[in-house]
Model the fold of this input.
Amino acid sequence: MYSTLFISALSGLALVHAQSEATPNPTIPAMPTSTVGIPTIEGALVYDGPPVLGYTGPGGNATIQNGNPAATFQAVFPTPEFDVATGTTISGSVTAMTPANGTGVMLTVSLANLPDPALYGPLVYHIHQLPVPSDGNCTGTMAHLDPTQRGELHACEAAAPQTCQAGDLAGKHGNITATTWNVSYTDLFLSTTPGSPYYFGDLSVVIHSSNATRLTCANFTMTSTSNTTSPSSTPTITPFKGAASTAFGSASLFGGVMVAIAAFFL
Done:
C-alpha cells in the first residue's frame, strides 16, 4: 500500500512540474529560500501547504478599515473568458460597496456557468494587485493584494482573517464549490479610500481552478459614489492567445496524494 501511494505521489508531482514553472514564484514577497523550485502556475503556488496558526507576513496582521467613503464598485466577468479549456464560460460579477457604518466592504458574488467542481474545483478567487491589461491576459494582474506581504506559502487561516492576505477572498470567506455561486459577506480588511494600501477600486478579481490556473478575470470599476448598485454590461475582450495550461487535475492529484501520505505516516 505504501509503495502504491509513493508511486502515485511521484506521478502526480511529475505532472505538476510538466505544466508549471520550475522557478521560485517571483510575485511572493515573503517567499522563504527553502521553497526554491516549488511548482507554480502563472505565478501562483500549485499547493500552498497547510495553514500555520497565527502565521503573518513581515507587515503583521491586516488592519480593519474604518471610515471608508460611500462607494460601489463592480467587476463583471468578460466573454470570452481567459482560459476556455474547461468548456464553460463563467459569467457574473463581484459587487463591493461601503456598509452604512463605513467599516470594511460588503461583497456580493454572483456567478454562473462555473466549471464542474468535481473536475476543476474547488475554485478560488482573489483580488489581485494590478488591473487586467487591455488584452485580457489574467497573468498580467500579478499576485494577490497583500499589503502585509504575507505571501501564499501557507494557506489562509479563515478563523483569523486578519492574518490572511487582504485580497484572499476565498481563503477568508470560502471556496467556490458549485456551478452556480451566490454569496454575500462583509470583509473588514478592504478599503474604498484611494491611496490606502487596502484599496481595491482600481484592481482586479481573478477566478482560479484548484491547480491555480487563471480561468477568468475582471477589473473593478466604480458604479456609484453611494451605497447602491448599478448593474454593468458584460464586457467583450479579444481572447489572449497564450492561454493557460489545459492540463487540469494533476495539482489536485498531487495535493490529495500528499494528504493521503501524511495520514498514513504521521
Summary: The first helix runs from residue 2 to 18. Residues 1-36, 236-266 have pLDDT under 50 and may be disordered.
